[in-house]
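name: query_chain
kind: protein
chains: 1
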Amino acid sequence: MRTNTRLFVILAVFFFAADGLYAWWSLVDSYHHALEMVGTFGIALTGVLSSLIAWYLWLIHRSQHGQELPEDRAEAHIDDGDAEQGHFSPWSWWPIVLAGAAALVVLGLAVGIWICFIGGAILIVSIVGWVYEYYRGYFAH
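structure:
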C-alpha cells in the first residue's frame, strides 16, 4: 500500500511540474502570448486526481495501522490473501434496475427531458431497494 501511495505522489508531482512547463511553453510559443487553457487545466486536474488517489491510499494505509497487504510482501503465500473482501449479494436484481434507470436518465438528457423524470423516479426506487434489500423478505436480519 505504501508503494502505491508513493507512486501516485510521484505522478502528482510529475503532472504539476508538466503543467507548469506546459503553461510556460504555451505563453512563450503562442502568437498572441496567451495561456492555452484546455491543456493547462487538463494536466492540472490530472495532478489533482493523482493527489486525491494518493491521499485516499494513505488514509486506508493509516486505518490499517501500517499493516502491509499480503500482495506487498515477498514471503506471503496465496492463502494469506483469501480473507473476506466484502459483502456481495449475487442474487440481487437491484443493480440491473439501477443501471437501467441511469441509462434512462442519460437517454433523457439526449432525447427529451421528460424521460429524465421517469428515470430519476426509478433511480430513487432502485437505490432504496438495493440499500434495504437485507431488511425485508427472505434475507431479513
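note: The chain has a mean pLDDT of 89.
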